[in-house]
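Subject: Predicted fold for GemA protein, 136 residues

User T.R. writes:
Posting the sequence so we have a shared reference for the thread.
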Amino acid sequence: MTTPTISNGKKSLLHVAKSRLGLSDVEYLDILANHGNGAQSSRDLNDHTFESVLDHFKSLGFVPKNKFYRPVGSKQRLLWKIAAILKELKRGDDYADSIAERMFKVQSHRWLDADQLRRLVASLTYHQKRKRKRQS
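User M.O. replies:
I've generated the C-alpha cells; pasting them so everyone works from the same file.
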C-alpha cells in the first residue's frame, strides 16, 4: 500500500521556499533526500516527511505566510457577514466603506484582506450590539 502524497498547495510551498532561499536544484534535491526519507521529488513526500522538510527550510530562514493555511473563501464569507450586518443596521455599503477608510485608509471595504475584514466585522458587531441595546 502506498502512502498518500501531499497536496499541490504544499508542493507549491516547498518550491516557494526553494526560490526564496535561493537553493539550486541539486541543493533542493539533496534536502529532499536527507529530510524526506530518500524522496527524489516533492511527489514522493507524505505529510510527515513534508513537515520534516518544511522544518528544515524554516531552520534555514524561510518564513511561510500564514495565509497558506487559511480556508478557501474566508474573505467571501466575511463580506457576506458584513452585508448581513449592514442590512440589519439599515445601512448601505458606503457605511462600511467609510469605516474601512477610517480604520485602514482604504477606499472600499471590498479591497481589504481577510484579517482587516475580521477587524471590520468586529467593529460592525460592536456597533450592532450598541444599537440593539438602545432599542430595548
